[in-house]
Write the structure tokens for this entry.
Amino acid sequence: MADWIKGPMDGGLPSEIADGVRRHRKTDAFIDAHPITSQLKRPLRDRWGRYSGVLVDMAYDFCLANDWKTFGSGTLEGFVGDVHGMIRRFLPLLPPSTAEVARHMITGEWILACRSWEGMGIALGRIAERLRRPVPLEKAVADLQPLETPILAGFRSVFPEVVHHLRS
């Protein structure tokens, strides 16, 4: 949800939400600047340009959802249930546009959809709907699938570093 909250954290949000947005932004910045992520973006740049970073980020979501037993605790379904409960608790405190996206996120089970390439295509299509200029991001799945092995290897290297970075 932090992707839908724009601008500085100037006190307009409850501290728990603002802290979560800051952590999310710190995570995104670390991942985007990582040399492995940069390397994974290269084969996507010619066709997808500046969206290659979004595509790798979403591919990392695919990896996490499919390798949850290695990197998460409990089940992915249990984690998603906890996230949905937290979202419901904070819905009244979110900016209206963010709250609307959050409701769709819950009903569409966006996190669980990331387990399949078909679900990834749907998720990328949702991202594309929010862009100023039309970009058929859902078609990028055809470019991501052949890169699944190097993306998974990259994710398995980057993710532990992200966790360490956030804890430091």
Q: What stands out?
A: The chain has one domain: 14-167.
